[in-house]
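We treat protein structure as text, and this decision shapes the records that our systems exchange. The remainder of this section carries one protein's record, kept here as part of the documentation:
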Amino acid sequence: MKVAMDSPSFSRRSFLLSTAACGAALHSLTLPALLAQTASGRRLRLASIGVGGMGASDLESLSSHPAVDVVALCDVDSNNLGGAVAKHGKAKTFADFRRMFDEMAGQIDAVNIATPDHTHAAAAMTALNCGKHVYCQKPLTHDVHESRQLRVVAEKTGLVTQMGTQIHSTTPYRTAVKLVQSGIIGKVREAHSWSSKTWGYDGGDPAPSAVPATLDWNLWLGTAQEIPYSDGQYHPANWRRWYDFGGGTMGDMAIHILDPVFTALKLTAPTTLLSNSSAAPKRSFGMQNQTRFTFPSTAFTTDGFTLTWSDGGKMPDSAAWPLEGADGNRQALPDQGSMFVGEKGFLLLPHVGMPQLLPAKAFAATPIEAAPNGDHYHLFVDACLGGKPTTCDFSYGGPLTEAVLLGTIANRFPGNELRWQAEAMTIPNHDQADALLRRRYRKGFEVDNLS
């Protein structure tokens, strides 16, 4: 495992110790041994990377499982660490997750990651390289190449993984999947998904400002190229709107909203993408995006199936959709959601709400049996302790993330149909788009199996 030596305190000796520690963990704890160990003791030693904002929420949910012991906390902002330590006082604290593995590789069973998107893959792959189970917030990665590599390595190691699309396990989304796969609306011809959110920025470069004393800006940048800190622009919020760090509205919301579409229809990789979006600024994302994906047919779709994503106020053309309720009044589309257009009917799925079968009058006598609710976090812990496999592992989350990130690339080239060759992982008809599939990590932050 490569561990960067970007600061004087991270010495070559530390690098060698870290490599040896993770290597020993991998050799001495094969997956069956690791599962047997955790299952026999019924305890899971958890390290949390990124403990502010969503990270704090993830940590609270994971640690609420009675078999979890929080042993390490890592964050580049000491204010975030302080809040987490107040609740988990026995855990060791770190600013650099590489140092955490260097010192504690043998004392950690699983890791959860809730950093900005550009650090997801580096932290997750380092954990996998050290033989640790991984729960990683959505979107799984910042780049297509990273998603592919995390899936490949996770499958090779057999470690337990889960992408943090918590709604994946809830009753509304599970019910929608069940209904679509029951065939009640027939095979699906097309699907439309949308979000009213706008994660973009169309202005001048942010003015540099002093880095807060509580923040290690070098570690926050991590794998990204160096830029000056700017107050209120990147940390602790707004990083989603910058291309170097986030995925815009698609990266934020499409991962959630397209999740039940991919699950219900068992979609694989798209074959073409065509964006009808506003021009994207060089460093940020277009304020309004609309992207059409074509997919190979599945058991639940017709041939020629298309999926269209819209955001930032753009909405799908719903004129032909039977949106009249049982009372005959036409309902407005929710601000966020999906519509499945089937051969025998429609299914509207608000984000987040119970699905509706349409036309309402045609399905008035059709009962909708709610699927059981699941705790996405506890399902991960249970799987680590030898229970049932997770349903949002990197084998599923990786390809879903790839598709969404391909959409963010397509939005940078409106009007250009991109052809995606998934197996070769290339966009052969557009060199500029192809070049965005993988970024170069900043020197000193390389990671084995990624760089």
The domain at 12-167+377-392+429-437 is CATH 3.40.50.720 (Rossmann fold). The radius of gyration is 22 Å. The chain has 14 helices and 14 strands. The longest strand covers residues 301-311.
